[in-house]
């Protein structure tokens, strides 16, 4: 391989590795516990249509921009911005955009690892048959005992540590032998498990009901709020603003068709979300399932529905294995920008860098973990440590990084430099991308961020009604 295509950390040889890695980074837990409920509750295929429009307006242009920055510079986010700014005489302060992106990715990693520990715990419990004939009350007791009981926090810490050890063990093997090979194995395995559950759902589940909820237009449920939620999910679902796609663009093989790969990743993420929705709505029999999401859907409603069906133990094991793989691949991707940044700063071997980031993520994750139990009553302005980490990352840092990245590429760089980033193509398409990056992306993302920040601020009023914005 031409050494100009190598990053200091290494590169991928196979052109398909970028696709599998980016799919593993984007097809995360939201596909299984947020997307199905949103589609079913907010208009079915009408929601899906607006969501796809959001992908075209927001996700695809920004995904291409981030991946193209990495491909151009062949470095992680900070050095990629440094090289691009240096080559185009842009001010050096733009490097802070990349630094904020790496930091936001680290915060998301810390939160993600805690959820990954819960998924791993449920995988083992399902495999051992401990959910057989479980009831709603027993499942709620299991979840409360593991997550919210302060006396059981050591067990929670242990599963959290095991999950991060799995991530560190893979990442320490390197970009090619570790990250790339794992993504090429784990992501197809996750899709295979999901496909198997879909076949079972079509044969033995309430598939007609699921198809109606996910794919039929429900005008009575469709509103402007549906449009906002569709755009919001389109923005947050594909891991933008945390440096992952910049790193993966840097690692991509020189023969990788970047524009086609980015489009295929977004399409694959959508298809995985639709398949997950069909599976969930086929298997979960609770009447209120369209309104369920998150913990309630994955850790309560689904185990309850499968507790007494023939083969329920096997089905639950497959489901939680699939969810654990989704968390594992996402965590591997989220760790990579921080590893690259620290490796550049310290000039240390990759294994030591991975270990340092892994320990730091575990320590930061303890703040999240304790927010569910030991520190659940300790509030700062109405929010736990976990709540504030979530608000800072999702409502402030990630939107800010994405908006500033759009400004950097769209306005700080000369037109020819911006267009050179995305490579050759029809002139009209290139101009559309440039003006979408300049105007549409910042406007839509700012709207999403402001609304998300306002909703997050309002949610803090439950813990501190005396806050100035809560009213009295």
From TrEMBL:
Compartments where located: Membrane
GO CC terms in record: membrane
Membrane topology, as annotated: Multi-pass membrane protein
KW Repeat (keyword) present: no
Keyword 4Fe-4S: no
PROSITE patterns: NA_NEUROTRAN_SYMP_3
Transmembrane feature ranges: 12-33, 45-64, 100-124, 156-176, 183-202, 233-251, 263-283, 314-334, 354-376, 388-412, 432-450
Signal peptide region: none
InterPro entries: Na/ntran_symport, SNS_sf, YocR/YhdH-like
Keywords: Membrane, Transmembrane, Transmembrane helix, Transport
PANTHER family per the UniProt record, alphabetical: TRANSPORTER
Record-given protein name: NSS family neurotransmitter:Na+ symporter
Organism: Tamilnaduibacter salinus
């Amino acid at each position: 391989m031409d050494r100009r295509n190598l990053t200091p950390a290494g590169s991928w040889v196979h052109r398909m590795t970028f696709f599998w890695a980016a799919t593993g980074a984007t097809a995360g837990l939201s596909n299984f516990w947020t997307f199905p409920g949103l589609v079913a509750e907010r208009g079915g295929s009408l929601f899906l249509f607006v969501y796809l429009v959001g992908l075209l307006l927001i996700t695809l242009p920004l995904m291409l921009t981030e991946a193209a920055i990495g491909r151009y510079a062949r470095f992680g986010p900070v050095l990629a911005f440094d090289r691009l700014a240096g080559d185009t005489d842009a001010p050096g302060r733009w490097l802070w955009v990349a630094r904020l992106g790496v930091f936001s990715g680290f915060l998301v990693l810390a939160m993600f690892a805690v959820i990954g520990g819960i998924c791993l715990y449920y995988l083992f419990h399902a495999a051992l048959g401990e959910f057989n004939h479980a009831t709603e009350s027993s499942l709620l007791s299991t979840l409360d005992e593991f997550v919210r009981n302060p006396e059981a926090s050591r067990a929670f810490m242990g599963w959290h540590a095991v999950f991060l050890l799995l991530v560190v063990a893979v990442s320490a093997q390197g970009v090619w032998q570790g990250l790339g090979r794992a993504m090429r194995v784990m992501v197809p395995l996750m899709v295979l498990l999901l496909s198997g559950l879909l076949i079972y759902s079509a044969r033995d589940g309430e598939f007609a009901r699921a198809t109606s909820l996910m794919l039929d237009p429900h005008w009575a449920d469709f509103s402007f709020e549906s449009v906002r939620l569709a755009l919001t999910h389109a923005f947050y679902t594909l891991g933008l603003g945390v440096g992952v796609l910049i790193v993966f663009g840097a690692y991509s093989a020189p023969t990788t068709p970047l524009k086609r790969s980015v489009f295929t990743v977004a399409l694959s993420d959508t298809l995985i979300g639709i398949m997950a929705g069909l599976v969930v709505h086929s298997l979960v029999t609770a009447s209120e399932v369209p309104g369920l999401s998150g913990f309630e859907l994955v850790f309560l409603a689904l185990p309850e529905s499968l507790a007494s069906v023939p083969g329920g133990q096997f089905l639950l094991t497959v489901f939680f294995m699939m969810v654990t793989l989704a968390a594992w691949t996402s965590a591997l991707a989220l760790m990579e920008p921080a590893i690259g940044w620290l490796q550049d700063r310290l000039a240390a071997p990759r294994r030591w860098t991975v270990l340092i980031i892994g320990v730091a993520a575990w320590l930061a994750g303890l703040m999240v973990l304790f927010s569910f139990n030991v520190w659940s009553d300790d509030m700062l302005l109405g929010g736990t440590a976990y709540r504030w980490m979530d608000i800072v990352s999702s409502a402030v840092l990630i939107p800010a990084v994405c908006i500033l990245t759009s400004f950097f590429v769209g306005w700080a760089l000369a037109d020819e430099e911006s267009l050179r980033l995305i490579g050759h193509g029809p002139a009209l398409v290139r101009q559309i991308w440039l003006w979408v990056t300049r105007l549409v992306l910042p406007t839509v993302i700012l709207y999403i961020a402001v609304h998300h920040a306002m909703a997050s601020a309002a949610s803090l009023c439950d813990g501190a009604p005396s806050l100035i914005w809560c009213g009295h």
